[in-house]
């Protein structure tokens, strides 16, 4: 029997009578990487914002750890949505210290997450002087500071150079072994193909495909077929 950490049941979000996402039913296995694929504007970020409490669903249900989602579950969910929420005049350690104070987390957690994201040696360097890749990794560290069971990353490789992409890819791939489930949204097929265990494809606000990602699957073909099908339905 599959061990499901998070599922959505007919999740729907409407803005001014326009459905951004329609009846989305995701199923995320524990200690895996789930790739949420879709063209820009397909509804990926809307789904993730509902899971993280940034948006309230119009309809449907979110189940986390076998119970209906509540705001208390955010203590077990970390997220990096859009840009990393950094204080650019503070160092990496000081950015994390702000979070430990707010969340009443022991300071020893700062060293732990800095090591995970390979930022232990940044010293007093201010986050505003970090490379884009370092900023993204610090954003991941902030998302990890509360020791989450579920980590949500929305287009985390945007703006990164090839080295930064490779570093972040290896970091994400390491999380399931640490007991962290990852939902990774992207419109870049090659990124999801190299990282994900399972994939869901969103187009026109509809979940058109969801399955385990197996060796030999033609992800590009699946993506194009799904995108074309549900764009036509929406039209």
Features:
six-stranded mixed β-sheet, 235 residues, 27% strand, five-stranded antiparallel β-sheet, alpha/beta
Question: In summary, what is this structure?
Answer:
By secondary structure, the chain is of the alpha/beta class.
Q: What report would you give on this structure?
A:
This protein has 235 residues and is α/β, with parallel strands linked by helices. The protein is built from 7 helices and 11 strands. Helix 2 (92-103) packs across helix 3 (108-116) and helix 4 runs parallel beside helix 5 (162-174). The radius of gyration is 18 Å and the shape is globular.
Helix and strand arrangement:
Layout lengths: L3 E12 L2 E7 L2 E3 L3 E5 L6 H8 L7 E6 L2 E2 L8 E5 L10 H12 L4 H9 L15 H13 L5 E5 L7 H13 L6 E6 L2 H7 L2 E6 L2 E7 L6 H16 L1
Parallel strand pairs: 4-9, 4-10, 7-8, 8-9
Antiparallel strand pairs: 1-2, 1-3, 1-5, 5-6, 10-11
Helix pairs in contact: 2-3, 4-5
Protein name: Lantibiotic protection ABC transporter ATP-binding subunit
Family: Belongs to the ABC transporter superfamily.
Keywords: ATP-binding, Nucleotide-binding, Transport
Q: Gyration radius, to the nearest Å? A: 18 Å
Please bin the fraction of helical residues. 25-40%
C-alpha termini separation:
39 Å
Strand order of the largest sheet: 7-8-9-4-10-11
The number of E-state strands comes to 11
